[in-house]
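Notes to self after the call with IL:
- keep both proteins in one doc
- input above output, always
- annotate only the second one for now

Protein 1:
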Amino acid sequence: MLHGMSTVRVTPEHLRPQTLPHVCVVSGVPTDRIRKLRAPRTIGTGSVLLFGAFAPFAAAFGGIDVYLPFAPDVFRRRRIALAVMAAAPLVAVAALAAGVRDVALIAVAFASIAAVLAAAIVRQRRSPEVHYDAADDTVLVGRAHPAFVAALRPPS
């Protein structure tokens, strides 16, 4: 389900294995599988003005590890997409090395590019966005299923 995805801002303590709800962050189904992700630091306007082109590199080295629940089938699809992204260029190189020429090589190259793009889109759309905001010590979890968001924040 991609429609109706939610965004939630929580403290890092909410995203520890002991405090997580047993609801998949992507699909909303019950799960006991928990995966560790790296939440990169968000880049503020001041950082961009101060560091310029080096701001993304500074953000890459700042961040925290967070944990999110993933249903096995969701994580399996992510792994398949990653395998396609890795294998498609190798197929094109193998076709070139095997001596495939002309139209066949062009077809293999375009098919490889299409496979990489399709797998990247699938992987991107099926992944939550996780960012750490050091200014107020919160983690922003985007593209989260509403059932996960509801379970993460019990009604008060």
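Protein 2 (the one to annotate):
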Amino acid sequence: MVDMLNTVNIDNFGNIDRRDFLGCLAVALGTSSLFSFDSFADPVFQRVDYVGKVCVIFDDAGGAKESVTNLEFLAREEVSVTIALMPRSRYEQDILDALVKYEKAPIDLIIHQQMEFIGMGQKGRPASMLEVNPREPGEKFDPEKHAAIIDSDSATDAQKILSYNIRRIDDYLVSSGSSRRVIGFNNHTGSLLTQKVDVMEALGRYAADNNLVVVDSVTIASSVMYEEARKAGAKAYKRNIDFIDSDHGNKKSSILKLSDCYGKAMMGFNVLAIGHLQNAETVREYIKAVRRDKGYFRRLTKF
């Protein structure tokens, strides 16, 4: 979920003239560019030889019933994809059962770790945006009902919460006879927490020690999640293009943004994008894009 009061608009396209590329894209698509590209000075996202790759992560798995239906659709279609599951979400169990049912589907699973956002608790920004059973002020983390990392948690606490969330989900998959495991995590909201160097460094160390991938959703431009994970030695990525369904899952908008991902990959750039699993139109357009542009769209373990 995008932090509603914190949008990101970073426009460092890198080694080629951004205006030339977006101008060509606008002519090809008959529209103007809707968003800008980010962080191609970083080694992870520098231009690669010949062709690039696209990884789309579908967030908010478990948050709505529609996310279960859309996951099952992706699994039946045998489309390579990565989903990010919110621990202790309303439909977490249904998501896990679908993953067990479609054991052989090419789906990577990461944790969509809830983290406190700026202004949480203020009017119009309730803590329930973060998790189903948010902690009361001063309440300690209870693993039987909580999942989020909040500002009062120490770096050590944050690491323990993430570890508990991952182990609990992995334990369920093991007990269900599945070979699927959590391979990493990204942040759900977190515009406040992802700016805290000590917390992000602790999560990065945990990821490095446990061979987990870190994905910074970049819900605020000043996030240090990606940088601290890399410093800790973890394999890390960050979103480097606009959310593909930021226009409330609008079909035309999703088509344009997926086309932009493909266009950048054709020019030799690696693209990491994020959508939301509850948006059926976006999921359908993703399936069409994968089938049309074979070889470009990858799940996280193949990125």
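Annotation: The chain has eight helices and eight strands. The chain has one domain: 18-119+139-302.
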